[in-house]
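Hey,
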Amino acid sequence: MPETSDDRPLAPFLRACRNLPGGPDDRVPVWFMRQAGRSLPEYRAVRGAGSILDAIRDPELSAEITLQPVRRYGVDAAILYSDIVVPVAAIGFGVDVAPGVGPVVERPFARAADLERLRPLDPEGDTPYVLETVRILAKELPVPLIGFAGAPFTVASYLIEGRPSRTYGKTKALMHGEPAVWHQLMERLADLAIVSLRSQVEHGARALQVFDSWAGALAPPTYEEFVLPHSRRVFEAVADLGVPRIHFGVGTGELLGLMAAAGADVVGVDWRVPLDEARRRVPADRALQGNLDPALCLAPWEVVEAAVRDVLRRNAGHPGHVFNLGHGVLPETDPSVLERVVELVHAEGRCDGPVDGEGADR
């Protein structure tokens, strides 16, 4: 892929995503999943009432919310203020995001006939507010903007279960009981993700992240048969855009190698797998993102400080490292703690170590 899509210098975040070695003064870049949100008082001051989908439909508000953590924390990337269910909501599937619950579906997907409810996405007609938000941010952000989409499996799990689930029983029952219907569903959701991702890059996003948040509920053979082909199609379909592609899931320690096989440039690692162990599970040419436990940010600073340094130590100066949490920022997190995390990573994180041989045992 090209080093950059325009004539701007390559930002530390983009350099790390591309596994490019730097000099001894190059710092490890950092951003936080869910860095724009309820943990910030400035977010609560402007957010207003109603569903998050209402806020997302307001480009000026969404842009402001996206910018807030960049101003406060000095992070090296911004992620678009949006939600993984925006495309399916926009095409009229009947999805909302309930406060304190998450995505809820009025009429969950249950049978082959429900495939007809999943029409193609027209970004200009269905999600013009997302495109306008991206346009605004492309002009105003001092750091790269990360666009994103939900992976087919995770979006499918919401549509089938009708709300967040701990067991994914209905999802697995459809997957194994009606595999033809399952694969048709995944194909349509992959199409939605591809169109949405491409539209975000075409309007100014400089990196992409695919959230397969709940893929960790699956055994590796199940993931490989029922999920990997569709995730791989998403990543292949945006490869020509020349921007870094990140693949993230929760509880996916046993799937890291398979997730890398989907074609992402960066594999997100949650807090359950030490970063040095994750390097042994993915190919050497892939960067890693992670992986501080979000809950530790609620502990005394001495605990947080030690945990941050442990992540950096395990990275051992590898240039392909984007520091992040192992999942999203918890709403009760004190923003001042994250400010100190950014300062510490920038002060002590270095990305000039050796890469030869790492991951070669895979």
